[in-house]
Amino acid sequence: MPAKVYSDQDADLAILQRKTLAVLGFGSQGHAHALNLKDSGCNVIIGLYEGSKSAPVAASHGFEVVSTAEAVRRADVIFVAIPDTKQPAAYERDIAPNLAPGKTLLFSHGFAIHFKTIVPPKNVNVILVAPKGPGHIVRRQFVEGKGVPALIGVYQDPGRNSKKIALAWAKGIGATRAGVLQTSFKEETETDLFGEQTVLCGGLSALVTAGYETLVEAGYQPEMAYFECLHELKLIADLMNEAGISGMRFSISETAKWGDVSVGPKIIDPSVKKRMKAALKDIQSGKFAKGWVREYNGGYKRYNALLKAGQKHNIERVGERLRSLMPWMKKRSVKGVQAAY
Predict the structure, then answer these.
(1) Could you report the per-residue pLDDT of 110-125, keeping only the tens digit for each?
(2) Contact 185, 217 (CB under 8 A)
(3) Which of 142-164 are b and which e, b meaning 16 or more Cβ less than 10 Å from the residue's Cβ?
(4) Under 8 Å CB-to-CB from 64, ≥6 apart: which residues?
(5) Cα radius of gyration rounded to whole Å, the chain
(6) Helix crossing, 28-39 with 162-172: angle to 10°?
(7) pTM, 2 dp
(8) Looking at residue 329, what is its pLDDT?
(9) 109 counts as catalytic
(10) Do residues 185 and 116 lie in contact, with contact meaning Cβ atoms separated by under 8 Å?
(11) Rounded to an integer, what distance in angstroms lies between the CA atom of residue 35 and that of residue 26?
(12) What pLDDT is stored for residue 337 in this prediction?
């Protein structure tokens, strides 16, 4: 049975317009939700830790900026837009002491609730509104009169109004323009982690790098390897996004199609799927979550070393030079940039 898709007519924004909404953090998702809700006529305040570099940025957008604890005290709905690993400490220090019965905690990813790094009291609503896109896209689509699809979920519902609040929030950020599906914290968390690790981020970056290295090691020019294994990837991904895998195949040459269906399964073979299943098992058992929390508590040593090693790879230097020759391409420098909150 197909999942029900909720749209604008299924959500009542008036539910939020009678409440004070707090966004804790002003990073990728935080800034997008806050700005979209503000533009939708909602009363939004921003909660940040003392000394946060995001405070003047949020203030420049016309928001009242207060401490995290003050934001929780004043708000009816509290969006915890803080990185997963930093949420437990913020919760114990600033959020939990200021919660009261009837308030609603909202998350855009179920990690902390599902893996119980945060255990909320039973007298508050706990909901999920997870846009299926990064914050800058959530904001851009909203400004253009469009929206990014989202997932909603209800973890606990003492107020008997959690789903209505989640749908209203989704409407306030523009998600109901595109469509909203209901899920659970468990399903959202485990599928999101799996997709990131095995396909969208981990799998894709490893596949691109391996293809690039194979061509360069065989004596081909690095620039040719970059174009064939990375640059053209967006064209294929866009076709898939617009029309599915079959739609992408319809738009490429017969030679490309034959290579796709005959060689692709030899590269991404059953052994890869076997390792994907192992990765999923680590997610489901909590092994990945425990390891990630341990990495954070240890000061991100391996995490930072792996990121630095990736930044030094030759594909980055070649790509930076080639992108500089494309004035039409929107470019972003990530050197020294970290997620703000």
Answers:
(1) 999 999 999 999 999 9
(2) no
(3) beeeebbbbbbbbbbbeeeebbb
(4) 45, 46
(5) 22
(6) 90
(7) 0.93
(8) 79
(9) yes
(10) no
(11) 10
(12) 38
